[in-house]
Amino acid sequence: MGLESNTQGSESRLAAYVEALTASLGHADRAAPFRSYTAGLLLPGARKSVEPMAARVEPGRVQAAHQSLHHFVAKADWSDDALLAAVRTHVLPIIEQRGPIRGWIIDDTGIPKKGTHSVGVARQYCGQLGKQDNCQVAVTLSLAADHASLPVAHRLYLPQPWADDLARRAKAGVPDDVAFQTKPQIALAQIRAAIEAGVPTATVLTDAGYGVDTAFRDGITQLGLAYVVGIQTSTSLWPPGAEPLPPKPWSGRGRPASLIRRDPEHTPVPAKALAMSLPKRAWRRVTWREGSNTTLAGRFAAVRVRPANRDYNRPTPRPEEWLLVEWPKGEPEPTKYWLSTLSPTTTRRAMVDQAKLRWRIERDYQDLKQELGLGHYEGRGWRGFHHHATLCIATYGFLIAERGAFPPSDGFWPPSLKAPALPDDYRPRGAPDPA
What we know:
With 435 residues, this protein is α+β, with helices and mostly antiparallel strands. The chain contains 14 helices and twelve strands. α1 packs across α2.
């Protein structure tokens, strides 16, 4: 198959994919800008903001195309949830042809921003920069199989100062029913919505930013799902075989005590101290998958413990869970810790394999940002932020479908689209020279 045939095949499959999703947008007049926006995200280019995409897609009428795409992403009242559901309906069966959904991955991604006017921008931790800085942060839920993953929900985290500022909310178009929520609260709402939508369930996977939140873990359990979540070294646990003291015996006067307790001689321990106290025989080498250059393996211990966070406010101890710990060879101490509600009969290897599946979210974010311009939207409003992210995910769904049909080993990745030539005098706003 030649390059020209590849290009024509990609374009025809993209057209069919977009057509299958268009009904979820509500109005037929949104079909054309949807096609153009998706093509603009796929075509090569340093920036995937509205104006450069308009120039690449329709170089003969850049201003009109710019206005059309801007209205579609920033103003048009179509449903992000409806389009994401259509993407899921189309792409999930393609993923499942090669293996089942094994994990629901919760994570968040930071988008660096200058200034303070874009919705949700605040000085907060930005994973892309690896430090605190001005950025927007979006919480996402991805469905992951061994070979592919698909984001099915995303929502901007609105910091408390933004949530409480009525003037800024109104200017950015934040809906009235959007109140302040922590990231774990946003994530739990996404999980609940996915269950209600009938999405195939799987074990919930998170890093320690979510796993340390006891209410979040309890919420997952109450929804009937198992989890493997990262925790911090300081997370308090009852070691194997230990649990809180029972309520104090009734003295015969007043109401009987009902809460479990601890005393100076009987207390939980930090996860790190527990891990360091484990005997040498508790550690085993486990291989979890083949990397690009080598087999990925490490030393792990797995023991049954009871989480202890504020359990003195409970009438009964928390149920036992798995504590999984990774201690790479040559390191002075363990490096990663997880709590898991997987079955007590789960093997160590199966638990490690589940915990390590979370790497797929990094692939999602890499492709969404580097290939599709997730962080390139230049508008400041709530609707535009979410519409752009939804359109990036919809386009990512097409890439997943193409990858499933034409793996990289076939020499057909990424899919080829033919871009019209730009006019010689085209100059993006702010650029000193024609582009």
